[in-house]
Amino acid sequence: MVFFVCEGCNESLKKNKVDSHAERCNSCWAVTCVDCNKTFEGDDYRTHTSCISEAEKYEGACFNGNKTS
Asked: Residue by residue, what is the 3-state secondary structure of the chain?
C-alpha cells in the first residue's frame, strides 16, 4: 500500500484516504510519496501506481533485484 504525507499538516495517509483528507485540511496543497519522495500537487497522486521497492530504496547501488518502476 502506498502512503503519502500531506505537505500542509504532515499527516500520513493511505492512497485511498487522500481525497477525504484534502477536503477537510485547508493547508493540503500537495502530498509526497513516502517511498520515492516525489511530491504530487492536486490530484496528480492518482497517477502514481508504481513505486520503488523497499529493497531498492535502502540498498541503493547495491540493489540487484528487478526494478519495479
From this structure: CCEEEECCCCCEEEHHHHHHHHHHCCCCCEEEECCCCCEEECCHHHHCCCCCCHHHHHHHHHCCCCCCC
What is the rounded CA–CA span in Å between residue 24 and residue 68? 33
pLDDT at 1 over 80: no
Q: What is the pLDDT of residues 12-63, one digit of tens each?
A: 999 999 999 999 999 999 999 998 899 999 889 998 877 766 556 666 666 6
Greatest Cα-to-Cα distance within the chain, rounded to the nearest angstrom: 43
Contact 50, 69 (CB under 8 A): yes
